[in-house]
Amino acid sequence: MQAPDLTRDASQRTNPRGSSVIVMLVAATFFMENLDGTIIATALPQMAQSFGLHPVDLSLGITSYLLTLAVFIPISGWAADRFGLRTIFGSAIAVFTVASVLCGMTSTLPMFTAARVLQGIGGAMMVPVGRLAVLRATPKDGLMRAISIITWPGLVAPVIGPPLGGFITTYSSWRWIFYLNLPLGIIGFALALRYLGNTREQAGRRFDFAGFMLCGLACTTLLYAMELVGRNDTPWFLTGALITAGVLASVAAWLHLRRTPEPVVDLKSLRIRTFAVAMGGGSLFRVSISAVPFLLPLMFQVGFGLNAFESGLLTLSVFAGNLSMKLVTTPIVRRYGFRSVLIVNGVIAAISLAVMSLIAPATPTWIVVAVLFASGLSRSLQFTALNTLSFADVPKAQMSGASALSSTLFQLTMGVGVALGAIALRLAEWMHGHGSQTVTAADFSIAFLIVAAVGLLGVADLFSLHRDAGAEVSGRKAKTGG
Questions:
Q1: Residue 59, Cβ neighbours under 10 Å: how many?
Q2: How far is Cα 235 from Cα 279, in angstroms, rounded to an integer?
Q3: Domain 268-482, CATH 1.20.1250.20 — does that match?
Q4: 1-206 CATH
Q5: Could you tell me the pTM of the whole model?
Q6: CA atoms within 13 A on the CB side of 117
Q7: Any idea where the domains of the chain sit in the sequence?
Q8: CA–CA separation, 290 and 421 (whole Å)
Q9: Using 50, 70 and 90 to split pLDDT, how confident is the model at 475?
Q10: What is the C-alpha separation between 239 and 235, in angstroms, rounded?
């Protein structure tokens, strides 16, 4: 039964056109998933008016989506191995698309939350399974280019999401934020059926229910606790209880996943140094970067008094830097190697975040744009290099487990990053001796310094890399004859 699928998959690895279509398809679905996590932020007032609620109450729609992603991403590897890449990825696109339409049709908060949970389930399958499809269809020498393409949604979506959501909400209806996924989903579903093989690496692997429950409990409690810490009215007893439960669940999950023969998330990839470093120090970098899309719009609107449209235009400078760096990422890594690029550029990225603390309401616009553009350049290079290095030395047989683990940690860092931004802002308010009702531009200066420090801390782990780390993917060793 599986022979035709294996043959088809092998043809994909040698068919540049099929491989390119898969890469672009996965990038498009990643963009849909990442965009829907941020785009509704500016639409909350209009949505609240439609539901007859206060805008703050709509935060449940955002939180439920992010928590669902965190819970269901760990089972994506098992699902792909059990039912096949094409089956799971195609089904994920279908579920995500249908749920998007349902989100646009809802008229009450419970209905909207339920639709968002369903959308989160689809998104949780799309992210790691889509990456796995790319990893299996792409040879090592083309891996950097493929990873570069599929990582830009994680950089671009949080930047353009708020202004795009504001534009749609202002000139149309918030419901079109979700309806726009329908044509994209239909095209993606058709391409998945056409180009993806239904390969199964370990079709007989049993489902690790205990591991799934422990991982889900750890992710939800810790993420929700981080969110509560960043609020102005933090319920400290509940937050402490959630952190305690999350830590205990994390320890229990770690012990369980190490001992069980068929874990829901395979930790074997952490024995590979390049993967371990990308997940360790790389996660700290992603946390710091994820705080920026949260802090920048607030600084421009609350601290500087700009409107939402003006704020959105400025943040697009980061997006321009992201795209510009894509043109030279591969040559840079091939010239200098992963270790040198990650260490030097990691420091530059942290400095670019620290420089944001110097921006003031009186700062000329061109200087603000230049700083944001430079930050976009450095974070794009770091993001792509880290994601490529993650899988540079992972054997094909471990790709499924590595992809699920990487996606789980990525989702956690995204959530923790937003919480870090809120916590950093609260610390700044405390240091300046005033409440959250009077946020000033100076508060954001301290917040960006804290975020930059976290990013700089992640660079320390990169020094443990061998100077030829990931050489097979970067091509540097072969080029220099080393």
A1: 13
A2: 31
A3: yes
A4: 1.20.1250.20
A5: 0.74
A6: 9
A7: 1-206, 208-263, 268-482
A8: 8
A9: low
A10: 6
